Amino acid sequence: MSKKLNVLIIGTGLFATSTYLPALEGLSDKFQIVACCNRSLEKAQLFAEKASIPANAVYTDIDEALQHPGVDVAAILVPVQYNLEITRKAINAGKHVVLEKPIAHNLRDAAEVVRLSKSTDKVVLVAENFGYREYLHKVSNIIKNGTIGNGVAFNYVANRNYDPSNPYMATKWRQSPEHVGGYLSDGGVHNWAEIIELLGRPDEVSAFTSQTYEIHGAEDTIALSAKMVSGAVGTFVLSMATAKPAGLNFHIYGTKGTIYISQSQNIDTEGSISSEEISVTIFEDTGNVTNFDKSSGIGVTEEWCDFYDAVTHGKSLRITPEDAYYHLATIAAGIESSKTRKVVPVQTV
């Protein structure tokens, strides 16, 4: 029988309740939430009640929580500026780590998280759940098999609708973000996880940004041109400030064919993407056309299964902390370019 991993939840806010709790309850053969921690005792107790955590496993002090008997995994869901500090504490306490994205609030801390992950035998997962969606794996294999030849160019346009009733907008650390790019990095790392999975990482970028809504606390729309390490070039547009519907269109142009990907997103009452409808069309220069449509979740269950296999069977993570670094570094380079009006190299780790 496979080992069940005991999980400590650090940060018991909205995402812990709406996403992590049901995901881990659905993986009860692999994980059990045994303790939780929040600087607000009331919030910790509310989560504990929902997760059936006993009163003696509810903490307000992180160091004490990390010493809770039997904890294997620290799941860190805190304002991003604390990611490095708590990751270091968890590794020093001998715990595996699941760290909510983005990897850190700046590239210096992000590089240190990567260094820490390479210095330990503990598994560190940055929870880039979009990169775990099933359709992305399928398209990745199509590209790796040479179906469309070498990637030449791409066009990626995504939007999330502005909704002031979205409870995530009420969080003070998002309204006054310390992380570079605010919502653009908080959400944009997901988008670059998809692009980098299919086309490799960017080498340099040039970008413009704008801010439409003051509540976002920073830029909320970006238009970016990128030259990839592979030599492919492309455009990336992301806005967090548009009307409904939310979704994306992603076109990849190769020497032997083209891939069109479109997504429409279903947003739940708590402001999270609950599911997506995905359509993929592959045009080959032979004249062959392939279509597939898929209704998909957002990859949280899949990323936790990948993490479980890494911890219990020594498998490599599909998305490493170094990958997550480049998702953030690309957005950071775009923000810098928009301020300096220069082409900016994507900073290497």
Automatic annotation (TrEMBL):
Gene3D superfamilies: Dihydrodipicolinate Reductase, domain 2, NAD(P)-binding Rossmann-like Domain. Signal peptide: none annotated. It comes from the Eukaryota. Residues 5-127 form the Gfo/Idh/MocA-like oxidoreductase N-terminal domain. Residues 143-346 form the Gfo/Idh/MocA-like oxidoreductase C-terminal domain. InterPro entries: Gfo/Idh/MocA-like_OxRdtase_C, Gfo/Idh/MocA-like_OxRdtase_N, NAD(P)-bd_dom_sf. Pfam families: GFO_IDH_MocA (PF01408), GFO_IDH_MocA_C (PF02894). This is Gfo/Idh/MocA family oxidoreductase. It comes from Basidiobolus ranarum.
